[in-house]
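Lecture notes, part 5. Sequence design as translation. It can be helpful to think of inverse folding as translation between two languages: the language of shapes and the language of residues. The source text, in structure tokens, appears below.
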């Protein structure tokens, strides 16, 4: 499927060339559209979830709560995908699209260029979705993003959507940040501890990140929770305590 997307990328080159002569107008439109915040998209995302639903209404409960504009869009796509019973397919299609963006600077620039007229964006996305044989849910969703000038956020939305699909499968992703990789024994112990906290019926998957700026210790993030046990944070707490006036 990723190959189908790549085959549609020449269309992006033609679009980029066709708009190169409108640089002054493009800059003006770009400045005008810079101000709206992504968080304002909640109404549009709710409308999309409703519009994409099949005739027979089905109640869908989100496995986790997501916030912000990207979270709203991802939640709307999750609801529509569950109602159409194409959750795994939509997840795969979004991943293919993100990979195509990473491999094609032209395609990536096209999705971020707010000066491209909405109807041009919509036509291009329709053509790409048709060539890639995307599901109707994914195609409709991408068209909504194109109409609202939100294609530039597709990577963030895809990550949020992945969080929802993992939660749907009972998988809880935990991220641990340390100054150096955890030894296998400590990683296993941490995973077991998190499993006890999260409880039965769910599976923990652990992702390690390296960040020398925390100085030592670790920071664990999962299920919208953050446990900061880094030396950097402890040092800041100690500094604040030392700066407080002493009362006799």
């Amino acid at each position: 499927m990723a190959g189908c997307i790549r085959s549609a990328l020449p269309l992006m080159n033609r679009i980029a060339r066709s708009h190169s002569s409108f640089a002054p107008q493009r800059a003006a439109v770009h400045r005008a559209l810079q101000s709206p915040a992504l968080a304002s998209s909640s109404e549009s995302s709710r409308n999309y979830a409703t519009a994409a639903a099949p005739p027979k209404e089905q109640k869908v409960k989100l496995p986790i709560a997501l916030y912000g504009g990207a979270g709203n869009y991802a939640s709307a796509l999750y609801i529509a995908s569950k109602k159409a019973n194409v959750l795994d397919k939509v997840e795969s299609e979004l991943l293919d699209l993100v990979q195509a963006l990473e491999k094609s600077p032209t395609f990536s620039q096209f999705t971020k260029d707010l000066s491209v007229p909405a109807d041009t964006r919509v036509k291009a996305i329709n053509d790409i979705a048709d060539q890639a044989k995307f599901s109707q849910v994914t195609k409709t969703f991408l068209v909504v993003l194109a109409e609202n000038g939100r294609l530039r956020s597709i990577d963030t939305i895809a990550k949020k959507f992945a969080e929802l699909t993992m939660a749907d499968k009972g998988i809880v992703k935990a991220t641990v940040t340390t100054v150096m990789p955890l030894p296998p024994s400590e990683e296993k112990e941490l995973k077991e501890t998190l499993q006890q906290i999260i409880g039965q019926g769910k599976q923990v998957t652990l992702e390690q990140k390296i960040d020398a700026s925390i100085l030592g210790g670790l920071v664990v993030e999962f299920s919208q929770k953050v446990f900061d046990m880094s030396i950097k944070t402890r040092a800041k707490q100690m500094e604040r305590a030392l700066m407080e006036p002493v009362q006799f």
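The translated text above is only one of many valid answers, since several sequences can fold into similar shapes. Residues 68-84 form the longest helix (17 residues).
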